[in-house]
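Two quick folds needed for the group meeting slides. Do the first one here.
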Amino acid sequence: EPEEIKAAIEKSSGFIMGSPTLGGHAPTQIQTALGIILANAKKTTLAGVFGSFGWSGEAIDLLEQKFRDAGYRFGFEPIRVKFKPTEIVLKTCEEAGTDFAQAIKKAHQRAQAVTKKAAPGSQAARTEQALGRVVGSLSVVTTQQGEINGAMLASWVSQATFTPPGLTVAVAKDRAIESLLYTGSNFVLNVLEEGKHLQLMKHFLKPFSPGADRLEGVEIEKTEAGNPILKDALAYIECKVANRMECGDHWLIYGVAQQGSLLKDGITAVHHRKTGSNY
């Protein structure tokens, strides 16, 4: 209903609008909703558009142009889906949604930074400093699920069990790789080498666009299960996800080691922090 759309958009920090192309045009309902959004959404509201089409994309082009002309900032590049979406297209949509939510979250955090910042010498600040002394090995988690791969830099890693040999990795809920680490799936923990880890760190810390191949430009090999191993890693451990535990803003992934190998005779790179309020 128009009034429901108006009420929702007035209290939203962002909106994503999608449309099919029917007969070369956006459906009447979409055009109605578009008018309501343009009339009621604040110009600071983050926008996103996507659409499916056959031979022409007039509907999504209309949405994109209208929002750009009105001065809205886009949270991701418009997603155009021709005919039936593939696994890669669906993953791109999922990652675009994640990036969109992260952008809104960061905007809210910046606005609240002054009031939330712990005062020097306060108990909260002392606790953050103490947490910062908890260190972990610098690693890269990689996985391959069908046509889709995932990778992320990780330092919240720890051996968890002797029998069976297992480890845990903390993965933020808004990480693109999180949806690939479901129970029963496989992943590789690539442990980085001290003194030779900076280039890989730089690569995996850079922002990736939705659907981008995070392993492009990185030398890899594949395990028998098809998971990527970084050639420049110090060691690797291939694991099967046995359990997941929801922990605040992260998932704790418990993986049972299936196989692994020490690739070089070196020292593990360790990430040292001054505060526990960030990575």
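Then this one, please, same format:
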Amino acid sequence: DAADSDTPAVPRSDSDPPKLFILPKDVSSEARVISLPNPANGATARYYCCPRQGFYEFTRIAAPKSAPRSWLLTPERRAKASSASATTTIDQNEEEPEDQGTVKPEEDAPTNPLAKGYITKSPDIFLATPFDALFITLPALVSAKETQKQMFLSIDDYLDKLSASSPHLRELLYTESIKRRLEERVAAVCDTVEAGEEKMYRISMEKLAKEVVSKAQRLTANGLPASLEEKFVRTALEKPVMNIRREDSSVSAVSETATDGTTPVETPDTQISTEAASGSQASKDDTTSTAATSFCSPPAPSEAKPAKPEIDAPEGVPELLRLRTAIDFICSSYLSAPLRQQVQKVLSSLPDVDFSPLRTHMEHLASLRSQAQALRSISDNVSRKRATMDDDEAAEARAEKKRKKDEEDAKKKNQSRGVKQLAKADTSGMKKLSAFFTK
């Protein structure tokens, strides 16, 4: 009981637990977290602003729900290890020098909740990534009504619109470096005219579209992430399988041969299905191995992953699809819906990027998929008819068997009691009555 009373109680979960952030290095002491309207949907979002380095957005990195994680936070403590070869010691009464940047846990306990360590339930972490100030200014550059004509305005007029949408940004505009950065990004997508000593700006959709294309090209310079590449490029450019009926027949032939216990002989018809079956089995094995070893040590360097096959598409088409995927991502993430439609219209007429080869190839793939769907429908209809015929034959056999059984039951019911008793008598060694009437 005494031991149980000495055991500290488990603290309750916090309703507002701390969050982990990864912030950039060498930021100004005036850097702060601010609230600004999201340029895509207008909802309030948090950003990190540094007068020297610019704006950053927070990207949330979360662990999958299938693999629960948590963070263990420990306070920074002073190292008290002594060297074995040390010839001098510190007097016990002498105060040890404090390391710069360290905090005593006992002094920090009343103010810092993490002084004694902390375990977070959520494994999320927020990464501050560079954010172009251009997207902050776009809501002010575009008119609220689509039918309203765009006018040339000064930079102060646009900044006044921005400050009205966010009190945090209103305070930041007093910083000269922030104001100059916003003005530079406004000039990158606007037409300008001189009105006396003041420069006037009006947004140009063509310049904005070129800016989006430039960002997309930088994004795809080293290729898309593996997940995006698989979902939006490889899957989209995958050709459909046209020989469905031949493949179905080969699968049945292989399965029947395997059932008999003999080794199947690979013919040209069965080779495709055998390779497909082995490929699917290999993928299942890989998936099972990955799921089973996700918590184990990493594989040895010698175990290299098999290289993925090249994309079967005309030259230049995969690059165009990657570029279009990046453009769609930028537009959906940072442009409002009306502005997105205007930019998409301008993109189709830009001379810098020609998406016609991509459109032609995608139309060809759509035609192949429709043909494959038609063949699949025919194959399904034939399979249904064959199954229906088999069902009819089985039904007829069952009906015939039932009819014969009913006839036998009827004969047994019509027999007299004496005949039934004689049928039970032992007649072994006796002649039949008909034997006496033979010639």
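Slide caption for protein two: Confidence is low (pLDDT under 50) at residues 79-110, 244-297.
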